[in-house]
Amino acid sequence: MKLIYTEQALVSLQEALDFIAPYIAQEKLFEIRDRILDKADTLLLQPYQGQKEPYLEHLNLDSRRIITSHYKIIGDYIYITDIFDSRQDPYKMKG
User: Fold this and answer.
1) Which one of 34, 39, 45, 52 is at 20 to 30 Å from 2 when CA atoms are compared?
2) Are strands 71-76 and 51-52 parallel, antiparallel or unpaired?
3) Range list of H helices, the chain
């Protein structure tokens, strides 16, 4: 079994990293990226971990979130659908 990242999830991850890149060393940036991706990998062992994401309930997809640092990893089962910097306004997730 493997995780599948949507294009949106990869774009969101890159945007989050681009946002903080001017303020931290490249090595630290890679460490943050790896921590996010490693946390997502834990879904392979426990796909139902995490809480339901209330801002996405209107989609009826049983989207769940796991959190690492300031980032929400949002998915349904083993599809990673978004990586959202939780310091942003959560209403932005509604589109």
Assistant:
1) 52
2) unpaired
3) 7-20, 26-41
Residue with tokens 């997809």: 61
- pLDDT band at 78, cuts 50/70/90? low
> Measured between alpha carbons, how far is 46 from 49 in angstroms, rounded to an integer?
6
Domain 4-86 superfamily per CATH: RelE-like (3.30.2310.20)
Using the predicted structure, report yes or no on whether residue 69 has a pLDDT greater than 60.
yes
Residue partners of 94: CB distance under 8 A and separation at least 6: 55, 56, 58
Q: How many CB atoms lie within 10 A of CB 75?
A: 27
What is the Cα–Cα distance from 63 to 53, expressed in whole angstroms? Answer: 6
Exposure pattern of 4-35 as b/e (b: 16+ CB <10 Å)?
Answer: ebeeebeebbeebbeeeeeeeeeeeeeebeee
Q: Per-domain residue ranges for the chain?
A: 4-86
Residues 54, 57: Cα–Cα separation, whole Å:
5
For the chain, what is the mean pLDDT? 85
